[in-house]
Automatic annotation (TrEMBL):
Major location category of this protein: nucleus
Compartments reported by the entry: Nucleus
Keyword Metal-binding among record annotations: yes
Domain BED-type: from-to ranges: 5-49
Name this polypeptide is given: BED-type domain-containing protein
Organism: Diabrotica balteata (Banded cucumber beetle)
GO cellular component: a single term: nucleus
Length: 621
């Protein structure tokens, strides 16, 4: 191009790489070039339409600082159709051409991104993928590439390989280091574990950890490992032990919470020699399922409900009719819900939905050929009454499944409250009367034993909201105090021995000072007075002071109490952190199983077990 010739603005975005090829600086795409910029202009308009605020065929000079210059309207194919200044040959000082405006996050197009900015965007990308369970291949999707280029043209998206082998492991390593620091500062950790099978028929075991650090609850995924071979107790225990040793928590584990599967219990109790705590939600689920199955008449009504739901789930025509009726009646458009046989709460949700859409459903059923048998008035009455019986159980399950507040200490008061609530309910039908009694019987049989559990009892006692008040009788409350006394005495005794050793060491140092230490006489008397105080008497005073304090408000976090009084009761504070951090259920591990389904569908089935573990871990951070 000769000096002074006009050059299209479009060349701001392209580089020549060969005689007949150019490369887009924004999206790196290779385009053919035949001597004019038409093809390049079309690319900018179609792919990067927001980059320019002036016509892309408006010319600019190659030398912006030249002053007098001749503007010739016949400068070539990239010139405008009219003279810029209305003359063929006019000598004027050239103003600087207007540069295009663009969206930017970290600077202008001609500036390179700083390494720190690239790292921020890389981290945000990995966070988006792990939090939303996006497939790693999203970075190769054309739509996402264009979206990313629009937000920040200077940022080059990593390919799947770099994401999988560099960026994801880098962030995983950083977050692992943070969690390791927290765990190293913690004396006691509880874990939950669950075994599940992916869509690709691979078996995994997930482990989560739970602890309190500086009065804050932590609930983190430790690892999700593939189980190779048979699910024997020994095989499972080897995997769990490797995870615990890797995180250096094997000696810190207070208890391991899981369902009642025989293999997982065998792994924990027989091979790992650790305390096993059954998942309370799982036990509650078994109790309700027992009660529902034992009530034959109620099962008949449930079967009719399932057939109605099944019909609508398999008939698009019927669904559309239901939708139309709801719209005509001014109701929200709601679909039926299918229950899962093994999950009683799904039965509750199914019945609740049927009651909600009852009126629209009744009209719709009259418009359907070969409709399933509908419910009569008495059956609707049974369903509505059964919901009142089942609702408290759902409330209890939800309360016990939390991760950011104490749950184990609420087991006994919730259980007693549930039994009290069910006993008070009046039923108007024989079917619901039988259901109520079945629920009370199965709950007492399966869950009543929990009040005798040592770990649960300690947690209840150390919760300043409950102390001894939540127990069903004085015997169980006194047992809890006895178990706390035993453990507290051991701690006080250990601390006392440490103080004696420290005093002996100090005494030797003081003796070496001779007569210079005028406080040594008093210090010796104080040490002697302390030695006369036994650990048992000290513990008695501590517990009496704790029990005489007013109960903390039920709706408050008990760690607020312990934060305030940890210097008053340091030994009790230590035990409170140990037992109040234990989850009542293995739901945290089961939640990982539920989330994993989003990761192992068709678009993500290429995920290696290693990447799956990293993503599930990062999702919990």
């Amino acid at each position: 191009m000769r000096p002074g010739a006009k050059k299209s603005v479009v060349w701001e975005y392209f580089d020549k790489i060969e005689d007949r090829q150019v490369k887009c600086r924004v999206c790196k795409k290779i385009l053919k070039f035949f001597g004019n910029t038409t093809n390049l202009q079309q690319h900018i308009k179609r792919i990067h339409p927001t980059l320019l605020t002036i016509p892309i065929d408006e010319p600019v000079t190659t030398d912006l600082e030249q002053t007098p210059s001749v503007i010739n309207q016949e400068a070539g194919p990239s010139s405008a159709s009219e003279p810029l200044y209305g003359s063929d040959d006019v000598h004027l000082p050239l103003p600087k051409p207007k540069r295009q405006k663009q969206m930017k996050l970290f600077g202008a197009l001609n500036d390179d991104l700083k390494d720190s900015d690239i790292e921020k965007i890389d981290r945000a990308l990995v966070t988006m993928i792990t939090k939303d369970y996006q497939p790693l291949s999203i970075v190769e999707d054309q739509g996402f590439i264009e979206y990313s280029n629009l937000l920040q043209p200077k940022y080059k998206l990593p390919n799947r390989k770099k994401l999988s082998y560099e960026l994801l492991p880098k962030m995983y390593t950083q977050e692992v280091s943070r969690l390791e620091s927290l765990l190293s500062a913690t004396d006691n950790v509880s874990v939950t574990t669950d075994i599940w099978t992916s869509d690709s028929n691979r078996s995994y075991v997930t482990v989560t950890c739970h602890f309190i650090c500086e009065e804050e609850f932590f609930s983190k995924v430790l690892s999700t490992e593939e189980i190779l071979g048979h699910h024997t107790g020994e095989n499972i225990s080897n995997i769990l032990k490797e995870i615990f040793c890797r995180w250096n928590i094997l000696h810190k584990i207070t208890t391991i919470v899981s369902d009642n599967g025989p293999n997982i219990k065998c792994a924990i109790i027989e091979f790992l020699k650790k305390h096993h705590h059954p998942c309370v939600a799982h036990t509650l689920n078994l109790s309700v399922n027992d009660a529902l199955k034992n009530n034959t008449e109620f099962q008949c009504i449930l079967n009719k409900c399932k057939k109605i739901v099944g019909h609508f789930n398999h008939s698009a025509l019927s669904c559309n009719k239901l939708k139309s009726v709801q719209q005509q009646m001014g109701f929200p458009v709601l679909k039926v819900k299918q229950d899962v046989t093994t999950r009683w709460n799904s039965t509750l949700l199914m019945l609740e939905r049927l009651v909600t859409i009852k009126d629209a459903l009744s009209i719709t059923m009259t418009k359907i050929d070969k409709a399933p048998e509908f419910l009569d008035a008495s059956e609707w009455g049974v369903i509505e009454e059964s919901l009142k019986l089942l609702k408290p159980l759902e409330i209890m399950t939800t309360a016990l499944s939390g991760e950011k507040y104490p749950t184990l200490s609420t087991v006994i008061p919730l259980l007693r409250g549930l039994q009290f609530s069910l006993n008070r309910m009046d039923t108007t039908t024989d079917i619901c009367g039988n259901l109520k009694q079945s629920l009370l019987d199965t709950i007492a049989r399966r869950l009543g034993i929990l009040e005798y559990d040592k770990i649960i009892s300690k947690a209840v006692f150390l919760d300043p909201r409950f102390k001894k008040l939540a127990f069903g009788n004085d015997t169980n409350a006194n047992n809890a105090q006895k178990w706390i006394t035993e453990e507290l005495t051991a701690i006080v005794n250990e601390n006392s021995n440490a103080e004696i050793q420290e005093h002996q060491h100090t005494s030797v140092s003081d003796d070496n000072k001779g007569d210079l230490d005028i406080w040594s006489h008093f210090d010796h008397k104080l040490a002697k007075a302390k030695s006369l105080s036994t650990p048992t008497s000290t513990v008695t005073v501590i517990l009496r002071q704790y029990l005489e304090m007013p109960h903390f408000e039920r709706k408050k976090n008990p760690m607020e109490f312990w934060k305030k009084y940890k210097s008053t009761f340091p030994e009790l504070y230590y035990l409170a952190k140990k037992y109040l951090s234990i989850p009542a259920t293995s739901v945290p591990s089961e939640r990982v199983f539920s989330k994993s389904g989003q990761l192992t569908n068709l678009r993500r089935n290429r995920l290696s077990p290693k990447n799956l573990n990293q993503i599930l871990f990062l999702n919990s951070t």
